[in-house]
């Protein structure tokens, strides 16, 4: 605290005295560890000399507005279940159903302004489920043909 400004980064309080930047109410200490490569998130404002003094007790509150924070993205659970059912368990119908539900939930969430991940997982679950279902039907047809085949014919 001083009656005169000691350095350019000192700030003048409502009582007319100059204070170092670490005494400012909105001051945040620098993070520990390696130096950041980007500009610091907050710099202490320096009051211009022509700024009128505010009487003690009439200070304006400091408002810090935080905007544009990224919302965390979540992966749709039905999309994950669809892909797991298609890859791990031999349940193609359930994989198709869960994939369909997952894609519709993701589309509904995007229409309401919420972004959700997992569309590609759900689509792959549907595709693999359909391929497994087709392969299952082909195997069943081949087995039924082999079971009904008469061994006396040459082209069974």
Task: Give an overview in words.
Helix 1 (77-87) packs antiparallel against helix 2, helix 1 runs parallel beside helix 3 and helix 2 (92-111) packs antiparallel against helix 3 (119-148). A hairpin with a 5-residue loop joins strand 1 (11-12) and strand 2. The strands form two sheets. Strands 1-2 form a two-stranded antiparallel ribbon. The protein is rod-shaped and about 115 Å long. It is built from three helices and four strands. By secondary structure, the chain is mainly α. The model has no long low-confidence stretch (mean pLDDT 79). It folds into two domains: 1-47, no CATH class; 74-148. Helices cover 39% and strands 5% of the residues.
As an assembly, this protein is single chain
Given helix and strand content, the structural type is mainly alpha
Structural Rg: 34 Å
Q: Which stretches are poorly predicted, pLDDT < 50 over at least 5 residues? A: none
Proportion of helical residues: 25-40%
Distance between the termini: 101 Å
What is the averaged pLDDT score? Answer: 79
Task: Quote the beta fraction.
Answer: 5-15%
How many beta-strand elements? 4
Sheet with the most strands, sense and barrel status: 2 strands, antiparallel
Strand order of the largest sheet: 1-2
Name the overall outline. Answer: rod-shaped
The ordered string of helix (H) and strand (E) elements is EEEHHEH
List the helices and strands and how they pair.
Elements: E1 11-12, E2 18-19, E3 74-75, H1 77-87, H2 92-111, E4 116-117, H3 119-148
Parallel strand pairs: 3-4
Antiparallel strand pairs: 1-2
Write out key terms for the chains shown:
single chain, 156 residues, mainly alpha, 2 domains, two-stranded parallel sheet, 39% helix
